[in-house]
Amino acid sequence: SRRRSLLLYGQWGVGKTWLALRVQRQLCESSLTAHYLPWTSPVGDCIKAIATALDIPTTKTNLADKEVRCTQAEMLAAIGARLIETGDILILDKAHSIPVTLRNQIEQWLEQGATILLVATLPASKELYLKFPRWELKPLDYHSSYRLLLTTAAQLGIEIGQQELRQLATKGNGNPQFLLRSIVESDIQAESDPDQKEWIDLSPVVLIGLCLLIVLRYAGQGLNDTNLVIMGGLATIAVRIGWLLTKQLSRQKARIGQK
Predict the structure, then answer these.
(1) What is the pTM of this model?
(2) Helix H or strand E segment including 89
(3) N or C: which end of the chain has fewer CB within 10 A?
């Protein structure tokens, strides 16, 4: 509101995007014009999106009366001029991903008097990012984390004990995104199948049976009993295949559990 540019930064999931959108809405409600745009790649698409938001033409008519695309340099110059002329506020999210070439252009807009809010996840302390006053959005404290969990659980209708809420508030490290996810995931775990059965590890039994079949096969060879050798060999192969399939299923179950 004071027409001063700002760099809002912090860790992932701390609420920067949520706050930036809230700021845009509040500015627009106070008769100011603010444009929120997340950085996207490639560079040309992002420049075109900014120009479109500011009602800047992205095409022009050449000497042959044909409509052609404006160059990136032309659109960047027009964007800076429009920001200064109208006083519109530009909010750029994910600013830590902006390439050097565009950072230099934004620095020129800033020096010319444009009002810009950059939203970044732990940006480097160099170039453009040093030109802005910096404001760090810090994680929540324990009590705020607990209140957020409690309120979210009530809104979602999730029943969760105070002890578990305290544990989640401690493990969340004040990160709102992580705290919200932990509440949802706790509800997913509570809705898991109560009749799910635990599988017994039969690997030792299978190994013992495999050893006995191998002994049986060698006994058949010693006794010159062809039928015994064939039966022992086939049974050994069958048990071996069964054991491999059991191990594969156990691995898949472990992966699902980790997810």
Answers:
(1) 0.65
(2) strand 89-93
(3) C
